[in-house]
Amino acid sequence: MPGQRKKRRRQQDEARRATARFAPDVGRWEVLFETQDESEWHAHMRHLRASDTQLDWTAVRVDRLCGRLMRPTTFRLSLFVPKATPDPGQDPST
């Protein structure tokens, strides 16, 4: 089909950029919210979308950890926090 190669390349480029942006040596994922109650999860997400306009949703990860029989399902919201870059004008000992 026409345009499939172009679409595939664009998706691969986006995946490479995301991998580089969220690499472990660049920063870490910090858990913002975690619950096992699905209604609480939905209420918290609605509240965040309505009130927090400062949140960068491209740097947010939503995990749904399915527990199966032994553990209950857990919902987790994480935000990528980049490492602080040292200021070249600052003394590293302070």
Task: Please tag this protein with its features.
extended, three-stranded antiparallel beta sheet, 94 residues, alpha+beta, single chain, 3 strands
Shape label: extended
- Give the distance, in angstroms, between the N- and C-terminal Cα atoms: 60 Å
By DSSP, the count of extended strands is 3
The total count of helices amounts to 2
The parts where pLDDT drops under 50 for at least 5 residues are none
Structural class category: alpha+beta
Largest sheet strand order: 1-3-2
Order of helix and strand elements from N to C terminus: HEHEE
The profile of the biggest β sheet is: 3 strands, antiparallel
Strand content: 25-35%
Radius of gyration: 19 Å
Fraction in helix:
25-40%
Mean pLDDT: 85
Characterization of the model:
- By secondary structure, the protein is an alpha+beta fold.
- 34% of the residues lie in helices and 26% in strands.
- It has two helices and three strands, in the order αβαββ.
- A three-stranded antiparallel beta sheet has the order 1-3-2.
Topology at a glance:
Elements: H1 4-21, E1 27-35, H2 38-51, E2 60-65, E3 74-82
Antiparallel strand pairs: 1-3, 2-3
In short:
With 94 residues, the protein is α+β, with helices and mostly antiparallel strands. Helix content is 34%, strand content 26%.
